[in-house]
From TrEMBL:
SUPFAM superfamilies: S-adenosyl-L-methionine-dependent methyltransferases. Keywords: Methyltransferase, Transferase. InterPro entries: Methyltransf_11 (IPR013216), SAM-dependent_MTases_sf (IPR029063). Residues 42-133 form the Methyltransferase type domain. The lineage of its organism: Bacteria, Pseudomonadati, Pseudomonadota, Betaproteobacteria, Burkholderiales. One of its GO terms (molecular function) is S-adenosylmethionine-dependent methyltransferase activity. GO terms for biological process: methylation. This is Putative S-adenosyl-L-methionine-dependent methyltransferase. It comes from Cupriavidus taiwanensis.
Length: 244
């Protein structure tokens, strides 16, 4: 990600509707995984640390982040509560030799050129019976200035993510699109950016408080559907992966 994107994330991830809603949706999915009591959890690509407190509801959290500025911000935010280390997938993993009940890549994999090598690295960090949980942006045809600003390498479909998991020897336990109800608004914004040739992502900053509140309520409501099943399309894609 660009340095500006990290600074913006640090400023907004506590209150921005998307970060808040995603944390609530992720927590709902993790609640259904029957993780061990005080599970060992690794977050790859922790950014500025916005997910650490949420993940700590499910166990002891460690994390790796490739950007020194983001890692510094995460440490300032989290103190000594977590084991946070500098590194990156697939070839500079400071937790090599460790194993975890759950490995999370929350909107991380799309930033890495070697996504297959990185997912394979995550798989090797799982304990027997463990899981990899990931979220990624959906649909390459939605590519826009938003992806450029965030230094994405690609977006995914169910088919491409299934194929990637298979290449890494992983079984898809469940997979679903999400951020579905706001999909028409997102498509309109991304297509508008593309038609204008904009270099700036529409909606990247924190919206006005009333708008932020409504978007958060709409987005977080999807956790009820996702607790019971899957959604057929969306701006994002999630998957729970196990060893084949």
């Amino acid at each position: 990600m660009s340095p500006d994107a990290y600074l913006e994330m640090a400023d907004t991830e506590a209150s921005h509707w998307w970060f808040r809603g995603r944390r609530e949706i992720v927590a709902t999915i993790l609640s259904g995984l029957a993780l061990p009591r005080q599970a060992s959890i690794l977050e790859i690509g922790a950014g500025t640390g916005g997910n650490l407190a949420m993940l700590s509801q499910f166990g002891q959290v460690s994390a790796v982040e490739m950007d020194g500025t983001a890692l510094r911000l995460a440490r300032e935010k989290a103190g000594d509560a977590y084991d946070l280390r500098l590194g990156k997938c697939p070839d500079q993993m400071p937790f090599a030799g460790h194993s975890f009940d759950l490995v999370c890549l929350l909107d991380c994999l799309e930033h890495i050129a070697d996504d297959a090598g990185s997912l394979d690295c995550a798989a090797r960090l799982m304990k027997a019976g463990g899981a990899v949980f990931l979220t990624v942006p959906a649909y390459q045809w939605l590519w826009s200035a938003h992806d450029v600003f965030l230094h994405h390498q690609r977006r995914y479909s169910k088919r491409s993510l299934h194929a990637l998991a298979s290449r890494c020897g992983l079984h898809v336990e469940r997979m679903s699109y999400f951020n579905t109800m706001l999909f028409p608004l997102a498509v309109a914004a991304r297509m508008g950016d593309r038609l204008r040739g904009s270099r700036h992502a529409t909606g990247a900053g924190l919206p006005a408080a009333p708008v932020n509140h409504v978007l958060h309520r709409v987005f977080r409501a999807e956790r009820h559907w996702l607790a019971r099943g899957s959604l057929p399309f969306g701006i994002s894609l999630m998957a729970v992966l196990r060893a084949s």
